[in-house]
Amino acid sequence: MYGYAYEYVYGRKSTVPSGEGISEGHSVSTARSAVIRIADLRDPVLTDVQRMAVDATRDLAVDLSVDAVLDKARRRTGLTDFGADDFRERLRLWLRSTDEDEGLAPIGRLGVFNDCVRYAANRLLLEDLLKRHPEILDEPIEEPIIVAGLPRSGTTHLVNLIAADARLHSLPYWESREPVRDAREAAQQGVDPRYERCRKSYEQQDAMMPLLRAMHHMTPEHVHEEIELQALDFSSYLLEWIATPPRWRDYYLAHDQTPHYAYLKKVLQAVQWQRGGERKRWILKSPQHMEQLVPLHRTFPDATIAITHRDPVSVIRSAITMLAYGDRIRRRRVDPEAVAAYWTDRVETLLRACVRDRAAVPAAQSLDVTFDEFMADDVAMVERIYELAGLEMSEAARRRLDAYMEEHPRGEHGQVVYDLQADFGLDPAEVRKRFAFYFERFAVRAE
């Protein structure tokens, strides 16, 4: 979900034509079908591109050690100062938890390793930039609008819609992956080399996993989550989306995340400074914030926080279908029941934290956004959020939001059929019973 886990397979742009790469197990009516049924989740029928990636890495040995990660980050950047050393313990746990995931295939292990190298390299670049320009820490991050909410509950659509308003700073995916420019690199013909790397990775993933377009389309320009920035401090639930790391999960949930939200703010200050220090409000989002409302509010006490809500059954079946689809490459075998069990528990943990801490965010600064209400009138919901945030819905802003809606119609890449019973052996009604506490607290409609 959170990255191009397959970028290391090829050193060149994929030559798979658009429309190819859909296996026999994917039931579609046309090349650009409105309905997509992934019928091979349990026993994947790999495409030629997928098979090539798996075969190329089948015997690959991956050194999941702190020294291996940090040495490669140093070589990549030419830098040595990572700042405060406390991150090493967390990085060690990330890597140990990944190593303990016996079902993770070599390509999945390499994906985690490469992500860790990228985060460590980004950290080196950030700390170097801060040493050269300590005034960055004076950059104000004022009155951000922050979207929190369940994954697959409309958070991505909401943040991209609001980001169409040019009065706000937002975080495109290419910049989230590499938030600090390498001073040794120069733009070629006005194109940031960070953007080019992201574009090439995106093209490779699109060739590898074409159905992700219909589930979570992440182009380089797509407005992404600041969880990528939190990864520089190696403390978030991000690892759980690309591995099964109970050791890391338990550590993360047991520790106060306030220091790591402070690190996130520091990265945002650097990004804003690199943009010329233009004083604009930020639009941010991450589902993780839903279980970290207290650290979020401590870090951004003047933020307006919109919390999206949706039937957990719909969230779970969507998320685990996407994860199981990725597991055909990432893992030695796909285990739908294990994916469903892990993420049903995980969503429950997230929602119990939200119910527990919801009152920590003042009512004057927060809004609960139900999925059906948002889907009924997207722009009207943005207007409600703006009113709470004290931001005028200008005519120019409304035109930009309307234009975004016209340019990005729902289901433009097809509609995936999500079937909890058929694909994961779970009765939706039984799963829903686990979340009675959530339905009692929020006005969420069962779907």
Description of the molecule:
The chain has about 450 residues and is an alpha/beta fold. It has a single domain, classed as P-loop containing nucleotide triphosphate hydrolases (Rossmann fold, 3-Layer(aba) Sandwich), CATH 3.40.50. About 50% of the residues lie in helices and about 5% in strands. It has helices at about 50-55, 65-75, 85-100, 105-130, 155-165, 175, 195-210, 210-215, 225-230, 245-255, 260-275, 295-300, 310-330, 335-355, 370-375, 380-390, 395-405, 420-425, 430-435, 435-440, and strands at about 25-30, 35-40, 145-150, 170, 280-285, 305-310, 365-370, 415. Strands 4-5-3-6-7 form a five-stranded parallel sheet. A three-stranded mixed sheet has the order 1-2-8, with no helix packed on it. Helix 11 (about 260-275) crosses helix 12 (about 295-300). The two termini are about 25 Å apart.
Radius of gyration: 21 Å
* Poorly predicted runs of 5 or more residues: 1-32
- CATH fourth-tier homologous superfamily: P-loop containing nucleotide triphosphate hydrolases
Question: Helical content, roughly?
Answer: 40-55%
Q: Could you tell me the CATH topology label.
A: Rossmann fold
- First-last Cα distance: 23 Å
**β-sheet strand percentage:** 5-15%
Q: How many structural units, i.e. domains?
A: 1
The structure class reads: alpha/beta
Could you tell me the number of beta strands?
8
Global shape: globular
What CATH architecture do you see?
A: 3-Layer(aba) Sandwich
Provide a count of the helices. Answer: 20
Biggest sheet details: 5 strands, parallel
CATH class bucket:
Alpha Beta
Can you list the strand order of the major beta sheet? 4-5-3-6-7
Mean pLDDT: 91
SSE pattern? EEHHHHEHEHHHHHHEHEHHEHHHEHHH
